[in-house]
Design brief:
With 99 residues, this protein is mostly helical. The protein has a single domain, classed as Double Stranded RNA Binding Domain. 58% of the residues lie in helices and 9% in strands. It has 4 helices and 3 strands. It has a 3-stranded antiparallel β-sheet. It starts with a helix and ends with a helix. GO terms for molecular function: ligase activity; zinc ion binding.
């Protein structure tokens, strides 16, 4: 959900990140959130990233994750649009056939 919000903000030309979290940063350490843990789906500060809980996890810089998820979202959106167009064509054909 956080990555989706970041992608939405980027698509609207807003600043990167979630504003409320940017101001506060990490709630535990009050450090800036710099990386994204793929296993937990969470933004992390440098201190949390080095903790035992995340040390073995795959983490990526936030801008890279945004690009990655934005690409996935765009691909899925295109698939949904294509499916919608097929359904609308089918509906129209059925309506014509019924008339």
């Amino acid at each position: 959900a956080r990555v989706l919000e970041i992608a939405r903000r980027l698509s609207r030309g807003e600043a990167l990140g979630v504003e409320e979290e940017e101001e506060e940063g990490c709630q535990r350490h009050r450090e800036p959130l710099e990386v994204f843990c793929k296993e937990d789906g969470a933004l992390l500060c440098a201190i949390c990233r080095e903790s035992r809980a995340h040390r073995a996890h795959t983490v990526l810089p936030v801008p890279e994750v945004v690009r990655e998820y934005q690409g996935q979202i765009q691909a899925r959106l295109q698939t949904l649009k294509d499916d919608r167009d097929k359904l609308l064509e089918f509906r129209e054909a059925e309506m014509r056939r019924n008339w």
